[in-house]
Amino acid sequence: MEPDRRDELGAGGSGGRGHRRPALRGGRLGGTGDPVPSLEIYDPLSDNWSTGASMPVPLAAGGVAVLNGRMYVVGGCDTKHPRAPRGVRLRSAVEQLDPVADYPLAISWEACGALTGQLYCASGTSDALNDTAKGYAYNPTIDTWSPIIDLPMTMWAPGYTAANRMLLVSGGVSRPG
Length: 177
Hints:
- It is a single chain.
- With 177 residues, this protein is an all-beta fold.
- It has one domain: Kelch-type beta propeller (Neuraminidase, 6 Propeller), CATH 2.120.10.
- 0% of the residues lie in helices and 42% in strands.
- It contains no helices and 18 strands.
- It has strands spanning 6-7, 10-14, 21-25, 28-29, 39-43, 48-51, 63-67, 70-74, 87-90, 97-100, 107-108, 111-115, 118-122, 125-126, 135-139, 144-148, 159-163, 166-170.
- The chain has a four-stranded antiparallel β-sheet with strand order 2-3-5-6, with no helix packed on it. Strands 7-8-9-10 form a four-stranded antiparallel β-sheet, with no helix packed on it. The protein has a four-stranded antiparallel β-sheet with strand order 12-13-15-16, with no helix packed on it.
């Protein structure tokens, strides 16, 4: 079974069954725009999709990254708040989600990546509907976010990845002004 058509979803790889599997988290249902809580996991060995643990609150447009084999979802939009500070960590693709410390801003559309044992997130649109250049690093050992240097410009919804010990952020939306 393939997952429903979604917009604003997060994607990452999760460990399990001895191999990495792509996973799709949350998003908005195509047609209705309602955020969905489910995790859909693709298993390339069987060429099948399955459903994993659900988010405690349906979210779309959150930052997603994999750190130490665990998928993290940071911020996003729910049905009541255009931006949310909450974060969760997936123990494994089919197990439960653990809450992590709230992101310092209510945020959505940010860039996140795993670097040197920590989760780094930057950019996004904040709780006041303002674009931001702010960035923070999450230390999973002490469950704490710490500020990092700001991006050179505000933006939201960039393309992003982590590679070569860098959070790479490209494109996105930046309002004039």
